Fold this protein.
Amino acid sequence: MYSSILTGSLFGVEANLIHVEVDISAGLPGFSMVGSLSNEVREARERVQVALKNAGYDIPPKKVTINLAPANLKKDGTGFDVPIAIGILQTLGYFRGEATENILFAGELGLDGEIRPISGILPIVKEAARRGIDTCIIPWDNRIEGSVIPGVRVRGACNIRQLTAFLQETDMGQQEALLPAQPCTTQEILEREPYCADNDFSEIRGQEIARRAAEIAAAGFHNLLMSGPPGGGKSMIARAMAGILPPMTWQESIEVTTIYSVAGMLDTENPLILRRPFQSPHHTISGAALIGGGVHTHPGAISLAHRGVLFLDELTEFPRNILECLRQPLEDHRVNIARAQGNYIYPADFMLVCAMNPCRCGFFPDKNRCRCTEGELAKYWGRLSGPLLDRMDMFVETSRIDLQKLQSVREGEDSARIRQRVVEARAVQEERFRGKKYSFNGDMEAAELEHYCELGREERQLMETAYSQLELSARTYHRVLKVARTIADLGHSERIREEHLSEALAYRLTEGAWIRNG
């Protein structure tokens, strides 16, 4: 007696379709499982046997062999419990063989037969839809998450007896009553109220230059580093940026939601992530938590910030070896984690926003308050490598806020107005890069800068002078052009002009001074 049940297995943020093959034959009673299985999958043997017994199903004392094919793919997670149980019941004749045709099953079993939710349902359902699978039967608590993928019928099951009754039923009306299909609610979710951040730019006093830099960074998805004395509003500006970021497209939303699904961090009632992520890890974070990996490979903070903001407060407090891990993801927009069982690739296209004090005590260059020696300054800035600083698009210094501005009752420009300008600039970029694999100026490839950042004679002369006098690297030169392109978009200018380049260069001028002072 033999049966084959379809399910899915995660590998990074992608899913592979797996066939759970079950054979029950006469011989010495036993229950064996093969097919490159992790410990979690091997434990399914005990869970499934006890769950079926407690659900009232009689499993005869025979030889049970289960193979998860293809055998060369590593299987991990607890989502194989349900397909294994269904395969056993089908092999024993509890329902017809054609009852499971073109259906994907996934879910964890409790010892009482309850079907419990699992992580990574979204990529599994997405792969099933891509492969033309008609129906996905998943845990009840995962049903809304799975329903955001159009083109596939999703049904949520609460326990193994309910699922068996569905497969035994031949009348489609009765089947629908037992396990109703979850309607696709993607459009309804997309039309909900837009996100409003906790911090608003109207609450930030002064810091006009930093506010302007934050707007440019949000519009073009540029990396930003702010330095200034403590209490000047650096962290408030970074957190307020969440309220001015342009809305995500449906494709971006699915990408982000897939990562959070794999990480098991989705809200069961509102699974589709519409807000651009904002991750702010503490400086004690480990390398595996930041980049990804661990004993059970999982996405790190940089992947959880995909299509959003990774905010590193107190930048110099992070260990240097941890910060150096960011260099490759900042260029490649993904992280490749090599393990014995294979390479896991997680997307990591994030905007890096950092805040730091200018020195150990925080008051440099105010000689009346700063007591740091040149050696202490050099040691402080030595925590940041030149290659990492070179990957920052914009540098801005914040200053101590004047009392007059602090006591002013007049509020500054609010996030809603700034966001409107950012959205308009984003629309220009979306049209410019239509059909490309990227959609922001900050993601432009060096080979295409000549086309999208064409300079006139005066502009070329300005950049030649800046390249020589400021000793810019090739990477920095390209980043200046990208920032100037965003400034031009915010100013509704088709061409990059001298004033746009001058402002972009102004966000680089302090870099050399900081390093020399350090």
About this structure: The radius of gyration is 28 Å. The longest strand covers residues 14-25. Residues 418 and 490 are 10 Å apart (CA to CA).
